[in-house]
Amino acid sequence: MKKLILACLSMFLITAANAQNGYQVGDLASDFNLKNVDGKNVSLANYKNAKGYIVVFTCNTCPVSKAYEARVEALSKMYAAKGYPVVAINTNDPVTSPGDTYAKMQERAKEKGFSFAYLEDPDHVFTKKYGAQRTPHVFVLQKTAKGNEVAYIGAIDNDQQEANPQRDNYVQNAVNQLLKGEKPSVASTKAIGCTIKWKKEASR
Amino acid sequence: MQKSIVTILLILIGYGANAQVKLLTLNELEQRVAKGKDTTYVVNFWATWCGPCVEELPYFEKVNTENAGKPFKVILMSLDFKSKLKTDVIPFVAKHKIKSEVYVLNETDQQKFIDQVDKNWSGAIPATLILNADKKVRSFYEQAFTYEQLTKTISTVIKP
């Protein structure tokens, strides 16, 4: 009987640990200090006039990420001046995914003329901390007195193929509402994306 | 007259192509599984553009072949854009000589269908669903499989 209780308890603990994997809406997000494609390190705190941030976990290689590149650039153009800069973080290990090396990131940013920071995340420290599960995966943060509060988690819009002019622009809607002093009415969404290319551990 | 012959020809060609890979909604899939009673369905969510998905497809093909004649079916559910059915999916299936049943998912609202497949699915692919109506099995995996992991997982969730 004792064993059974123990088994149940440990199962519960595992479930609880899984559920807490990464941030939920309302959590305070940690700042980072990661290397940008221009060689300089970037932290959220660097953006002195920011009211919040559009943090995009993405990569060079995922077709869904590529399909959204122009839309991420548009978000940057639209919201950086309004106080919500885009900060992109590459989730992938450059050994597992050779198209995602720092040099390839630099190439991509130059080729596409990214106006936003595109950071590497060695050992997936912040990818794991935030709980990014696929690319692209967006976290909209709002600067508050307590810290950077997660206001929205999910997809950029619900129209990966850019086939529906009546698409729901989730990130735009969330940021627009935050700028008006409201909470995003849709605070979390799901979408099909690429798996994160994790570093292969020696033990596996 | 000529026009109508061309039209008929086009329809026939279209029909031939559709016979190979069809569109399928999640409800249609669920109905099929329910009717399958004691049949085990291994539904793999993949896309032609997804590297790790393409890598594991041969394992699903192998499992399907090995279980031929048994109440067992591998269904490869492509999440390629519907518009890519003829340009990407059908040529891919032909090139790789895929023997398992292939469908392109006929759903537009990702919000809805991701949760309908499994509440815990983040939307990353590859992902796999193992189903058996009679044994009340519905197991979901958001991961890539090796051949060994796949056969072991199937034999663990589907008890003989």
Give a concise summary:
The complex is a heterodimer of chains A (204) and B (160). With 204 residues, chain A is α+β, with helices and mostly antiparallel strands. Chain A has five helices and ten strands; from the N terminus they run αββββαβαβαβββαβ.
Would you give an account of this structure?
The complex is a heterodimer of chains A (204) and B (160). Chain A has 204 residues and is an alpha+beta fold. Chain A has a single domain (33-38, 47-195), classed as Glutaredoxin, CATH 3.40.30.10. Chain A contains five helices and ten strands; from the N terminus they run H-E-E-E-E-H-E-H-E-H-E-E-E-H-E. A six-stranded mixed β-sheet of chain A has the order 1-9-8-4-5-6. In chain A, strands 2-3 form a two-stranded antiparallel sheet. A two-stranded antiparallel sheet of chain A has the order 7-10. Chain B has six helices and seven strands. A six-stranded mixed β-sheet of chain B has the order 1-4-3-2-6-7, with helices on both faces. Chain B is globular.
List the helices and strands and how they pair.
The complex is a heterodimer of chains A (204) and B (160).
Chain A: H1 2-19, E1 28-29, E2 34-35, E3 41-42, E4 52-58, H2 63-79, E5 86-90, H3 102-112, E6 117-120, H4 125-130, E7 134-135, E8 137-143, E9 148-154, H5 170-179, E10 193-195
Parallel strand pairs in A: 4-5, 5-6
Antiparallel strand pairs in A: 1-9, 2-3, 4-8, 7-10, 8-9
Chain B: H1 2-20, E1 22-24, H2 26-35, E2 40-46, H3 51-66, E3 72-78, H4 85-95, E4 101-105, H5 110-117, E5 124-125, E6 127-132, E7 137-141, H6 147-157
Parallel strand pairs in B: 1-4, 2-3, 3-4
Antiparallel strand pairs in B: 2-6, 6-7
